[in-house]
Write a structure and sequence with these properties.
Structural class: mainly beta
Strand content: over 45%
CATH topology: Lipocalin
Strand order of the largest sheet: 1-4-7-9-10-11-12-14
Shape: elongated
């Protein structure tokens, strides 16, 4: 089992929510945390337990629209809940190079089970790159999607992450 530290400056999250007008894009840089996995010949050994903890400062999430951005920060209550945290507890697969990943996401005061998929690649220097995706429903976290000036945002949000991690020594 190897523990990898997420390299914040090389890791990011992107989110896309649809609306009645146009897609709303958001992003956050500087994900933090760790990954633990047994990697054999460049593949995660899913017979062994694998886990991860990924954190994001709530204020780091920025939308492409100033008004929507302000409303998102207000609804997330970034001052009171400064961190969004994902705890990966199960990894299965691979299937076509993709793993099924599940765990818990804590957003504001609500923790909810989530699942998605991830692709993992090992670099020659032992670093790991993970590209993951999942769809969240804001209502699962007791959040109502924003409605501003005729813009109605739908509750499903497509989230992708790109994580770069190096082995701890």
């Amino acid at each position: 089992m190897t523990r990898y530290s997420i390299v914040p400056e090389r890791s990011e999250l992107a989110a896309v929510a649809n609306s009645n007008v146009h897609p709303i894009h958001g992003s956050a840089h500087r994900l933090d945390g760790w990954i633990e996995a047994s990697v054999v010949d460049g593949v995660v050994d899913t017979e062994q337990p694998a886990s991860a903890q990924i954190e994001l400062q709530t204020t780091a999430l920025q939308a492409d629209n100033v008004l929507v951005n302000r409303e998102i920060q207000r609804r997330l209550d970034a001052r009171r809940y400064p961190v969004v945290r994902a705890d990966v507890t199960q990894v299965s697969g691979p299937s076509g190079g993709r793993y099924n990943v599940s765990g818990k996401l804590s957003l504001r005061h609500v923790t909810h089970e989530v699942s998605g998929t991830a692709e993992m690649r090992m670099h020659g220097d032992g670093a790991m790159q993970v590209d993951g995706e999942l769809t969240l429903d804001l209502r699962d976290f007791q959040l109502d999607p924003p409605k501003l000036l005729g813009l109605r945002v739908y509750p499903q949000v497509a989230v992708t992450v790109q994580i770069f991690a190096t082995p701890e020594h």
